[in-house]
Structure formats: structure tokens, C-alpha cells
Design brief:
- This protein is an alpha/beta fold and 175 residues long.
- It is built from seven helices and nine strands, in the order ββαβαβαβααβαβββα.
- Strands 2-1-7-6-5-4-3 form a seven-stranded mixed beta sheet. It has a two-stranded antiparallel ribbon with strand order 8-9.
- Helix 5 runs parallel beside helix 6.
- It starts with a strand and ends with a helix.
């Protein structure tokens, strides 16, 4: 399982230092699709793009749907994103069932877009801070579901510290 902070993917279970040696790449994550004409200019500065499998945060449709060929032709790599549920959507439900259903939706969308099996699908967690029990149940079910469906799970979350009682916590550390 990978954790992505600000566009940098970090293994949650770190391999030996020699295996971690890698080059850094800059990428961008934009909810709205920038348009085919802007891709070459963006590629002069960025090596990869976030690519949404479902509606990005705050949107009622997915402007990235069907755009993988254009993004790939422009030379980008991909940070494949699935917009996860907010806590208010998990209250008074079965969060594990929602996690499994969303994993299936993510895998279907990834296949429809032509991403290969074993690609890393990142669950975007928009709420920061300490994870509540329902959020953890949702995330755990999503991770297990994505793995069961032949993809590798990742988490796209904040590493920013927020107040937590007399200390601070970040979503990344809490996970």
C-alpha cells in the first residue's frame, strides 16, 4: 500500500534504503480537466498528472473520463485517483460495504480507461486529521477490495499537521 503526500508516493511499509533510491518527479492534480490544447505546455513542467476515475471533489461529473489517450499522448505518467467518501457520507451506513462498492467502482473505471492490472489506484481522502472508526473501516475495505480486484491500493492524503487535543496529527501519520 502506498501513501501519496503532495504528489510524492511513499510506501507505508518502507523497503530497504537501496530500494528506495529513486528520481523525483513533479506532477499536478487538477479537479477540472485542463483541456487537450494545454497538455503540451503543462508537460514542459510536469511529468505526471492526477487522473480522476470518478467525480473529483466538489464536482457533479468527471471531466477526465475518456481523456486518458490524450493525456498519455502528451507524455504524462499517471497518479490514478478515486475520490473517497467524506465522513458525513459514512455515518449511519455500513462503511465497509461502501468501501467495497467504491473499490469495485474504481477498478471498473480503471479498466474502462485502459489502465493495466496492478496499476496503483489512489483513494483520495479530502478530510484531514485523525481518522474516525467509520473512516478507517471504509479505507480498510477499499484497500482490500482494490487488491482483490487485481490493482494495487494507494492513499492520497494530507501530511499537514492539524490540532488534535494537546498535540497535532496528520491523516498520513494516523493511517
Amino acid at each position: 500500500v502506498l501513501l501519496c503526500l503532495g504528489g510524492i508516493a511513499l510506501p507505508l511499509l518502507c523497503p530497504p534504503a537501496a530500494a528506495r533510491a529513486q528520481q523525483n518527479y513533479l506532477g499536478f492534480d487538477k479537479n477540472g480537466y485542463p483541456g487537450d490544447a494545454l497538455l503540451p505546455a503543462l508537460h514542459r513542467h510536469f511529468a505526471y498528472s492526477g487522473f480522476w476515475l470518478n467525480n473529483p471533489p466538489g464536482m457533479t461529473s468527471n471531466p477526465w473520463a475518456g481523456k486518458r489517450p490524450a493525456v498519455r499522448a502528451a507524455g504524462f505518467g499517471f497518479l490514478i485517483l478515486f475520490n473517497g467518501r467524506l465522513d458525513r457520507e459514512l455515518k449511519h451506513t455500513d462503511p465497509a460495504a461502501l468501501g467495497r462498492a467504491d473499490a469495485e467502482a474504481a477498478a471498473r473505471a480503471a479498466r474502462r480507461e485502459g489502465f493495466p492490472t496492478h496499476a496503483i489506484l489512489f483513494l483520495d481522502l479530502e478530510e484531514g486529521g485523525r481518522m474516525l472508526p467509520e473512516q478507517l473501516a471504509y479505507v480498510a475495505a477499499w484497500i482490500a477490495g482494490v487488491e482483490r480486484l487485481g490493482f494495487r491500493p494507494g492513499i492520497y492524503a494530507s501530511g499537514i499537521d492539524v490540532p488534535d487535543g494537546h498535540a497535532t496529527i496528520s491523516t498520513a501519520r494516523d493511517l
